[in-house]
Write a structure and sequence with these properties.
Low-confidence stretches: none
Helix content: 10-25%
Order of helices and strands: EEHEEEHEEEEEEHEEEHEEEE
CATH class of the largest domain: Alpha Beta
Oligomer: single chain
Distance between the termini: 7 Å
Bound molecules: ligand LBFN2T5F
CATH architecture of the largest domain: Roll
Strand content: 35-45%
Amino acid sequence: MPEKRKIYFTKMQGAGNDYVYIDALGTPTSLSPGTVNLPDLATKISDRHFGVGGDGLIVIMPSSSADFRMRMFNADGSEAQMCGNASRCVAKYLYDKGFTDKEEILLETNSGIKILRLHIEDGETRSVTVDMGCYYLHCKDIPAKGAIDDVMIDEPVVADGREFLITAVGMGNPHGVIFTDSIDDCLVHHYGSILETSDVWPEKANIEFVEVESPTRLKMRVWERGTGETLACGTGACASAVASFLKGLSGNEVEVVLLGGILNIRIDKENGHVHMHGPAEFVAEGHYYYQPD
Ligand SMILES: N[C@@H](CCC[C@H](N)C(=O)O)C(=O)O
């Protein structure tokens, strides 16, 4: 059995979507990513009983094409392309800990470079707006297997004998948005978990259940690919806002009410860029005794 390793971490949350953050930026307590199996670390450190506990692992690294780079791993160890809530927390981490004095940070992710705009008060990051880039709808890009067309808008998909109308939206990662009159635990846990792994999604998907409360306010719960239900999903809130806007259920600016807080989403009608504004908070810091396999 290899020796246990001491891994320094910071725990952060954005609208209740909590991750364990590890920096690989070259400080004395930094991680050297090449020396660790990151999917294995993600699974173990995210465990809420035997680990630190969280919805997954975020690694903050240097970048050759942007100011910094973020890699994100779900609680099951799978690596995702993008995480909206984590991108805001990374902005706060970098600025508040003095890694940068920029109030606009370019962050490389597995789905391209995102622009993080920090809202600073008294030298501290209070909230962050992220330019999440353009949404996309083509099935081959998401990826999704639309039976009817090249895009999936309200396409019927059956899970455990019940039919759902799903709108597929790419926000760097794949999302299936379902509009409903009321959201309950059975919808999110039972049907969400079945739909995450439906044949419709070659790479699985995040499933959002959305109630339209008014043209400017959506209520949403999410079943996340690789993690299960979380208290918020930034890319999911963006995907829900896009689906709602395209279907004419809401305008291009909405607040999305999640179990863990509120995110404000604005879709730029000119260029399709989606802007997400929301909170980012430090929770705890320490070190974790990692036992590699
Ligand atoms: N919570 C996130 C999304 C995390 C990744 C997702 N589970 C996936 O596998 O695509 C967010 O805030 O966007």
